[in-house]
Amino acid sequence: MEGISALGVGSGLDLTGLLDQLRTAEREKLQPIVERRTQEQAKISAYGRLQTGLDKFQDAVAKLNDTSLYTALSASVQGDGISATASAEATAGSYEVTVTQTARAGSLASTRVTDLEATLTDADASIDLTFGDGSTHSVALAQDATLAEIRDTINDDPDAGVNASIINDGEGYRLVLTSKEAGEDAGITDMTFTNFTDATLEADASTQQLGRDALLNINGIEITSTSNTVEDAIQGVTLTLDASAEGKTATVVVEQDSESLKEAVGEFVSAYNEMKSTIGRMTAVTGDPETAGELVGDRTVRTIESRLSRDLGDLVEGGDIELFSQLGISLTPEGRLELDETKLDEAIASNPQALADFFAGDSDEAGMAGRLEATLGQVLDSDGILKRSIDSSEGRVGRLEERFDRTEVRIERTVDRYRQQFGQLDAMLAQMNSINDFLTQQLSSLNFQNDS
Prior knowledge:
Strand content: 15-25%
Domain Flagellar hook-associated protein 2 C-terminal: 211-434
Radius of gyration: 44 Å
Domain Flagellar hook-associated protein 2 N-terminal: 11-105
Number of helices: 11
CATH architecture of the largest domain: Up-down Bundle
Number of strands: 17
InterPro entries: Flagellin_hook_IN_motif, FliD, FliD_C, FliD_N
Order of helices and strands: HHHHEEEEEEHEEEEEEEEEHHEEHHHH
Protein name: Flagellar hook-associated protein 2
Number of domains: 3
Shape: flat
Structural class: alpha+beta
Largest sheet: 5 strands, antiparallel
Strand order of the largest sheet: 1-15-3-11-12
Distance between the termini: 52 Å
Pfam families: Flagellin_IN, FliD_C, FliD_N
């Protein structure tokens, strides 16, 4: 390596510069490999974006292929203070709900303790709780416990049935117990202090708020609920009451969940168009390699588009709806889907079963969604066409990287050979220059003698 810095000194030629030019020229052999590798890596990235778009479309298709979508019911409420949800067990109908009172948890406070740091318990102390259904529970307390420690012990007992807190009413501190559950039976009704140093500490009856059940009337039938979440008073429907519901009447309507069905169709159209836009960008022909799509003319993309177009265009025979156009979906000249929401609303309102037959059919692959789901499954499968294309490009990238490394080694060997040859040339020219200088000197001496 020391010869590099001295290269050309003997001959006076710029051999180092010439060697650099030769190295640059040799490294041009790497450029086609780099460009090809960049192209393959861009294809892999494009395949990944395509897979994301197809995954999203597959999710939308799967939703339309689920028969429960077409039988699902929704619950709506006309009125205040009540919300409702319907499950698969619900049946369509209209229900008038009048709320007399909402459910409430019971609570009870103790008499005051003036010193929050004072110890209140002797040995074997406990606090005994009584509830609305007559049940009791005893919480054992440590000796010399403060009010805060008593609170914490109660809260650490999973079977206590109450939450404990401390309230400062301005004159002292009170232990307040609130039932964990609403309802008359679960409400706290009494607490008894055993083996306390302060004999005056007891439940303050004036602070008691009894637990109570929710009372409501549904279509003339009286209903009692221990909770403000009223389940299955209307089969398959859950009613949720808030405080503002008391004394009010609301109408609960259970009907086909047309909004979810419409939303699912809209997601299908949107996901397909998004996927088509992705493909459009990847296959754009611009005449400029810098701006053209990464998958121009790609056989994998053409195959996927062809299969999906075939599925979308074929009839779904046997039902009242056989084509997308009958439910308000049309294909634009650009290959996108366009949704006429008014026509879709009419189709859902007039014949929802026809939509179920068209999209879901009577088996997993019978309807349009089933057909598309089968195709997408083949495309996106672990050994499907998209995964094979990705694997193929990744294999080419690996081989190109190996080729790059081998070519780079050959280039360095060539440059080393040039360096050795230039070194030999430099030495030979240096020797010739030395001989030339010697002969010139000798000739000059001879001429001088002749002149003399």
